[in-house]
Amino acid sequence: MLPPKYRKDRLSALALLGIVALNFPILSLFSRADRLFGIPVLFLYLFSFWLLFVILIAQVVRVHSKEKH
After folding, report:
1. What is the pLDDT of residues 8-53, one digit of tens each?
2. E strands, the chain, where?
3. Phi, psi (degrees; rounded to nearest 5) at 23
4. H or E stretch including 60?
């Protein structure tokens, strides 16, 4: 099990990843008129990243809550 310091580090790293991934230089890579499976590439990127981001945060938090009980 990870000490609380490492959990905080992981959550901080995830926050930094979210800031970078949802900022201008990266979003501009996906901002085009192309479609994949009929969905604009930008929307597909945003919702896919959001889903992955929520899953990663849930993994970090779930490990933390299991240790308390």
Report:
1. 999 999 999 999 999 999 999 999 999 999 999 999 999 999 999 9
2. 35-36, 39-40
3. -110, 170
4. helix 41-68
